[in-house]
Amino acid sequence: MRQLTRKVPLASVAVLAVTTLTACGAAEDGGSGGDGEGRTIAFVQGVAGDEFYISMRCGVEEAAEAAGADVDVQGPEKFDPSLQKPIVDSVVSSQPDALLVAPTDVSAMQAPLEAAADAGIEVVLVDTTVEDPSFAASAIASDNVGGGEAAFEAIKELNPDGGKVLVIGTDPGVSTLDARVEGFEQAAGGDSDFEYVGVQYSRNEPARAAQLVTAALQKDPDIVGIFAANLFAAEGTGTGVRQADKQDDVTIVGFDAGPAQVEQLKEGTVQALVAQEPEAIGADGVAQALAALDGDAVEAEIQTGFTIITQENVDGEAADDVYKSSC
Ligand code: T6T
């Protein structure tokens, strides 16, 4: 059985993350950067029904309402550029003043978003980005590389003797996931006690993530830790580890903190969650869009922080970091 005491040192990772990384965040008050009266803002999510983007929507709507701007929110049924592109195209033809968007692929969404900027729409990238974001007024995202590094540190604290570690991602070409994997890989690769067995792609489907995990545990039964790099990967990883009856042997650290991930944390399937600040990202996005529309100074890049949630702080100081299912 995993010992409770093995979890305690994670508090130090949490404190580190909160104190050093949230300092990078901006617009913590959720305020807007300009007078939005009569402005129209479109927000295109990476995928509908994902509590990360639902929480971002809450931040967007609250900031827009405070500024007097109108918001239209849409998202594809899957995190898939072939489904997101038609939504962006139709938003562009409706000519909003600004477009907040989380592109689902670094290359496939490049041209559609450039077309939006060419049509005179102020584009603000929220969460994810594209290969060349120079057309955008601003790009706002978590410290994803740092989050990947922190995930490795959390696994290491619970497995001080080292061992094999695996990453479950979604798809290559998603900027945020690629950055998290990079951060984890760098940290794991620099520690001779650990053997990084690679990243596997779940296509953002929990069932596929579960299958990948059970297969990986059959091949490498001595895996000690899995970094599940987003909300759906974490959900599936928890299921896969339970199906393999390995929940007492494998540490899971998941990115994101939706209600289902928090349940897995509380029941002990998952040991730590890296919670982003989606509402702040959304509020910052509105502030930057309105500033651009007013001709005020904008910040080309804003990096928001994250908090490590464990069983120790989930009902205390980290309770407000759990994502929302509705606004
Ligand atoms: O992790 C978030 C987001 O940051 C990422 O770009 C895609 O996945 C999520 O929406 C979680 O499902």
Question: What is the number of helices?
Answer: 10
Bound molecule kinds, no repeats: alpha-D-tagatopyranose
CATH topology of the largest domain: Rossmann fold
- Computed structural class: alpha/beta
Distance between the termini: 39 Å
Strand segment tally: 12
Average pLDDT score = 91
Number of domains: 2
Just give the CATH class of the largest domain: Alpha Beta
The percent of residues in helical segments reads 40-55%
Bulk shape:
elongated
The gyration radius over C-alpha positions equals 19 Å
Within CATH, the superfamily of the largest domain carries the name: Response regulator
Q: Mind summarizing the main beta sheet?
A: 6 strands, parallel
Give me the CATH architecture of the largest domain, please: 3-Layer(aba) Sandwich
Instruction: Tell me the fraction of residues in β-strands, as a range.
Output: 15-25%
The spatial strand order of the largest sheet comes to: 2-1-3-4-5-11
Q: Enumerate the spans where pLDDT stays under 50 for 5 or more consecutive residues.
A: 1-34
Order of secondary-structure elements: HEHEHEHEEHEHEHEHEHEHEE
